[in-house]
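This part of the workshop introduces the protein records we will be handling. An example says more than a description, so a record of this kind follows:
>
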Amino acid sequence: MLVDLTVAVADGATTISDVAVLSDQAELFGLVASDSTCWRLLDQLDTATLSQVARARSAAREVVWAQRAELTGQPFPPAKAAGRALPGLVIDLDASIVVCRSEKELAAPTFKKTFGYHPMLAFCDNTGEFLAAQLRRGNGGQQHRRRCTTSPGSKPLSPRSRTPIATATRSWSGPIPPAAPESSSATSAAAAMRR
């Protein structure tokens, strides 16, 4: 089942239900788990398994970036701010409010007078890749400034790399995924690079 989800994500899946696309190609993928089975699997994953998934993602990312470096001379595209390419990796830390209609675990009143979550999200600004998330209570934005310097758990490159890493932060209170214009992220990245 975890393999089904992995293949679906590699194929461009953005939701759990997108795993159904694989069942249209039974000759290639065989029997594919239903989305409800996938949800049950995800609900049962323990910390050790999640750590293995993070290590596998990190290893796959390193291979892909090495292959890209062979072809283009760069392991990843440069992040851009104000029309200029920024050196190294830019990790974009973002907080967003997710509204809940009922009391769910960790849901709480938000600063926007709604009820739900305020997760911290990390993206690689160079590639647009989602790196990590930390589920926080709806009032979690109160600690935003203090926690925004924390880097995501999985490292994008090996420790041998000498690639500079900048952290860009911004706060977004709209629905997930935030549809902020590229320039606001780039402006935040430029400000982070100047610090």
About this structure: The helical segments are 2-10, 20-23, 26-29, 35-44, 47-72, 144-147, 182-194. Confidence is low (pLDDT under 50) at residues 144-160, 171-195. The longest helix spans residues 47-72.
